[in-house]
Amino acid sequence: MTAPSIQCAVLGLGRLGFYHAKNLLTEVSGAAIVQVIDPLPGRAKDVAQAFGVPGYSDDVLDAFANPAVDAVVIVTPTRTHAEMIKLAASYGKDVFVEKPLTLQLDESIEVVKAVQEAGIICQVGFMRRFDPAYADAKRRIAAGEIGKPLYYKGFTRDAGAPPPEFIKDSGGLFVDCSIHDYDIARYLIGAEITAISGHGQVLKYPFMEAYDDVDQALSYFEFDNGAAGDAEASRNSPYGYDIRAEIIGSEGSLFIGELRNKSLTILNATGSSYEIIPDFQTRFHDAYCLELQHFIDCVRSRNTPIVTAEDATTNLKVALAATESMKNGKKVVLQPQASL
């Protein structure tokens, strides 16, 4: 007998919210969308009609109060996440929420408490853990194929800067971009970051100075098991979207990611060339689908997701420390965090 589908509502129908809704409907088994929400006049209705979703509204409370909704997928602006998750908890709705969890550490801690007290599932969208290449790296490290992991090296390069409207509420480059590296580094190394140094400056986009942000950054971090790592973040990649990582172990290394979008190389009189991955949705399509599948499976089984609100809070703490270090020019030692 087939189990009934998990009935979902998608809150926020911008580029990523629309993408998540499409993936839930076409790529994820055991899920259905019964309602879509967006405050932009007409947006929810248009998406509902395009996808054949029966319910739509411009008010998130309609989704939380809807008894047919089992879980909510929150893709609203980050500044609203804390309020959205607390509301979900109060109505007993399970939550998938995009990263970062919040922009303020105290808010993240409050969210974790609300999730724990309500007993709901809360998974945060650190999708690299679900990318097949990173997942394979995790398995190989656990199997001892490179010995003891000693060093993480990663870089996150975007082809250009988002508009000022996004930058002003993004939390800065470490919170918006490097936070992915902090999460996957913790996951692959299997340890917690205890100290970090952050460095950055504006190289290409002067408008970022008005928002106290940078377009190029580097962080160096230390782990509680003696390992170390560094992560570059850039909005200055003219050739395309570039996400790669290396794990150096005591007996070998792992390289994760590549630039090629397709296994096709063109050869002619001017040389050879190939198509580079154009954007994050192309690079991480499988990961985005697999993370939503994992969420639906966890809602059904009541198992804890492999990336939680507690993980997201730890990642935010590291990212905020990197930002602090960049501003004051000193390494920040992270104090042990009490159990959340």
Automatic annotation (TrEMBL):
Domain of life: Bacteria
Keywords per UniProt: Oxidoreductase
Domain Gfo/Idh/MocA-like oxidoreductase N-terminal: 6-126
Gfo/Idh/MocA-like oxidoreductase C-terminal domain ranges (all copies): 138-332
Keyword NAD attributed: no
Any GO molecular function: nucleotide binding
Protein's UniProt keywords contain Oxidoreductase: yes
Family: Belongs to the Gfo/Idh/MocA family.
Protein name per UniProt: Oxidoreductase
Organism: Shouchella clausii (Alkalihalobacillus clausii)
Taxonomic placement: Bacteria, Bacillati, Bacillota, Bacilli, Bacillales
